[in-house]
Amino acid sequence: VRLVQSGGGSVAAGGSLELSCLASGLRFSLSAVGWYRQAPGKQRELVATITMNGTTRYADSVKGRFTISRDNAKNTSHLQMNALKLDDTADYYCNVGLLLPGHWGQGTQVTVSS
Q1: Residue 46 burial class via C-beta count within 10 angstroms: exposed 0-12, middle 13-18, buried 19 and up
Q2: In whole angstroms, what is the distance from residue 39 CA to residue 22 CA?
Q3: Counting CB atoms within 10 angstroms of each CB, which of 28, 52, 73, 104 has the fewest?
Q4: Exposure string over 13-37, b if 16+ CB within 10 A, otherwise e
């Protein structure tokens, strides 16, 4: 199993970023996907999930700002992040599996500055 993340970087508060996660070596269409993040000095937290059927759930802190999606034809999940806040600064990880947490991506850094 391999999960390759892309996207992320630095953005000013209020801006947008998109993260992507390309999966291989598993039945992506039968898997759930989760995006987690870990800020410096804090525990890793679940940000958003999408089931194999497309049902989504979000942490209260990102509701209305983040959108998780999946493209089963491309074995890819995206996390669109809008209206970014300073508190969104963290390392972001995708996670894919029949149950979550499953397999982890390598992580990508998101830095939001004022």
Answers
A1: middle
A2: 23
A3: 73
A4: eeeebebbbbbeebebeebbbbbbb
Cβ atoms 43, 25 nearer than 8 A: no
pLDDT in tens, the chain (114 residues): 999 999 999 999 999 999 999 999 999 999 999 999 999 999 999 999 999 999 999 999 999 999 999 999 999 999 999 999 999 999 999 999 999 999 999 999 999 999
Cα separation, 39 vs 19, whole angstroms: 16
Tokens 């089963």, residue located = 72
Name the 3-class secondary structure at 38.
Answer: strand
Contact 27, 78 (CB under 8 A): no
